[in-house]
């Protein structure tokens, strides 16, 4: 019969305290971020309901002049771009701003999760929501008669544009939420949403604006995203290099500024 004392003494415990690998921390944080997004009714209204209403309303009426061609073919890429911005920028900026105000980010700052890891986790959660958004909007647009072009190659090009735009919008959202007060972030994020809805080529063609302001509008990330999607899905073009360059500049600049200026409290 084995002596319990000798069996216990033969087993050695070797705890290994330390942080989990960065990918595991990022995935865990991304799961939490996704659950918070899906539980927020106002967030779902902003990211799901409003884009669908805009797509249906403007496609079925003649309130805007798109200069000929199918109305839904012009509007669908722009509304998808708006949905991407609403999740990656507006909703994320507001949510993160209030997390910072209530001390959630302060507690995260005491963990091994870095600012880069937090940005990555939030971006992954946003991408998961965007899959649902794009699927829903595409189904509605197809019902309205949308005829996207590009095939599989076009879909891959659009995925690249959306990924880069999400990185740009997420970094800008964290920059705003990490430097402004929560109330200021709420007001500023909603103001930017409304302004870019009108000026970013989402529902109104850019060529309707004066020549003097058009270069500034084309340099906006929402305009680059809408133009990139529209050139592939509506015009059947290849990889949209100019929009990708604009989005890359915004993503790099926003990430650098957010990593330096973001405050946990």
Automatic annotation (TrEMBL):
Recorded GO MF terms: ABC-type transporter activity
* Sequence ranges assigned to domain ABC transmembrane type-2 in this UniProt record: 42-265
UniProt xrefs under Pfam families:
ABC2_membrane
Task: Enumerate the subcellular locations listed in this protein's record, separating them with semicolons.
Answer: Cell membrane; Membrane
Where the protein is mainly located, per its record?
Answer: membrane
GO CC list? ATP-binding cassette (ABC) transporter complex
The source's superkingdom equals: Bacteria
GO BP, sorted A to Z: response to antibiotic
Transmembrane annotation, as ranges? 44-64, 76-98, 119-146, 152-175, 187-206, 241-262
What keywords were assigned to this record? Antibiotic resistance, Cell membrane, Membrane, Transmembrane, Transmembrane helix, Transport
Q: Which InterPro entries would you find in this protein's record?
A: ABC2_TM, ABC2_TM_bact-type, ABC_2_transport, Nod_factor_ABC_transporter
Q: How does it sit in the membrane?
A: Multi-pass membrane protein
Q: Which family does it belong to?
A: Belongs to the ABC-2 integral membrane protein family.
PANTHER family in alphabetical order: NODULATION PROTEIN J
Listed name of the protein: Transport permease protein
Organism of origin is Marinactinospora thermotolerans DSM 45154
